[in-house]
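note to self: dont lose this again. the chain is below, predicted strucutre after it. 533 aa total, dont forget to put it in the shared folder this time
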Amino acid sequence: MKKEKQTMYRTTHKLIMNSVAALVFSTGLSALAADDKPALNLPITKGPFEAKDSSLTASQCPEWFRDAKFGIWAHWGPQAVPRQGDWYARKLYEGPGAVDRKTQKVSKNPSSDYSYHVKTYGHPSVFGYKDIIPLWKAEKWNPDVLMALYKKVGAKYFVSMASHHDNFFLWDSKVHRWNSVQMGPKKDVVGLWQKAAQKEGLRFGVSEHLAASYTWFQPSHRSDASGPKAGVPYDGNDPTYQDLYHTKAAPGDTGWLTTNPTWHQEWFNIIKELVETYHPDLLYSDSALPFGDVGRSMLANYYNDNVAQNAGKLEAVYNCKEFSNGGKWVRDYERGVADMIAKDPWQTDTSIGDWYYRTGQKYMTSGEVVRMLIDIVSKNGNLLLNVVQTPEGDLEPDVLAILDGIATWMEINKEGIFSTRPWKVYGEGPMMTVKEKGKTDGITKLQFTAEDFRFTASKDGAVVYAFELAPPTGDVRLVSLAKDGKLADKPVTGVKLLGSDEKLEWKQEAGALVIKKPAKVPNALALTYEIRF
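---
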């Protein structure tokens, strides 16, 4: 009887504390005056970096990242289960009367994900995202097999998603119960990915999308504005599950990053745990550097932790979607590209399809990925490519075929990609004048011709690699390497086609370096000419 009373007391106490927490958040900590904001506790591992721009600017992009050029990303988790693509955990709550995230206008029509969810699983007032999580079993996931494949494809680093906006952690977290060790597959996904990457000699990174989750998940607290369930709260309102859905945000706290200092503290604690558990080579945030000085503290802690792990040398890379202003981190473009050679290294992150598995989705082709990679590397960038996994954890046959095509091309042409640097110009040809609009789609959909080239160079500048982005239809003409041009300040001494034993005929003339059309094309996705001076 005493034991039953203790159990009853603990349950009642938990419900009361959850209710109190919900009340505190709903009254709007984010709306407090600056003097009333709670003091934050932001401990930083001892080391050379402080939470100041002047200190963080002293960081330098490590050589391994500049040499790597190509990474593969597992943007994967329980949101793959319904097979409906990205943002399912939010969109299932976008029923009648949902508020558009960007415009804040009310929509009369429910989202397609909401309609699918009601039809497939039931109404989100009863069966919500919390009930999707246990359905993720990852029963066909073999990280060792996949990592060996990714190495063959050419990846030099691998990034595991640690937490998406769904606030579900893919590591053995002590912060809350909603993690992949206690639920779903019952596995330390981040830890197993890391072991597989290290086994293959790949650098390892993690991505955090948590900073945006606080406002992103707010639709879970709403209810239908019309229909048979009008006014019935979704399960995000249940105090029992506030540790997953977060509590209600204060009025007006609707930006991508919350203004609530209590949530800033929580985010710092979580990322600190992640970094100090796995000591990743790379950390990615799906936002600008979050939360001002809180983000600076997080970054200083990450860098100092990395220095401690690497005998006093900084080997860490931090990606976020903000210009670095002095090299504090590596700028990331989501599905975007730089339009010129950038002084500092940068990264494109994109996916071969949707971010999460979606039935019937269309994927990029091997050629589109290869030509995108070439364009990015020519401008001093890296490509981080999400490879879409099924909810079970394996890859579909068409995805395997795409990867095989990339691997075949890479085996022949990798010399012109890895450990290279930008040349004096990044390219030439008719597609140079086409506006790419900063999107990777703008590259993959360009109709490249045999006159379109991209350039890279060896570190010592003795070799230039000219990538022809379509099979030649006649003699190859490289205007940038003309004898009387301003770019080729030394005479060309040799030309070779990577992947071919054919002895090429060539001549450096006024107006262009002219190469007689090769008799055979090693790989039609793109050709690489090795040009020596």
